[in-house]
Design goal:
By secondary structure, this protein is mainly α. It contains two helices and no strands. The chain has a domain of about 45 residues. It is about 45% helix and about 0% strand.
């Protein structure tokens, strides 16, 4: 499993994941429970690999 996320992609995923989780925990909105899906972009950012990129051959990281 090689990395396929670049630094900008990872930073954006962290920001989106944290924002979604914050919304889920702080909001009383009926759809706030969907904010817990923010774990997915946060997890992919931490490991640096996105399984959804594999079928399309997408890589946002720099290659050697």
């Amino acid at each position: 499993m090689s990395m396929n996320l670049g630094s900008i992609d990872r930073i954006l995923r962290i920001v989106i994941g944290v924002a979604a989780l914050t919304f889920a925990m702080m909001s009383n909105h009926e759809l706030a429970v969907w904010g817990f899906l923010g774990v997915v972009p946060l997890g992919t950012a931490v490991i640096g690999w996105c399984p959804a990129y594999l079928p399309f051959g997408i890589k946002t990281c720099k290659t050697n």
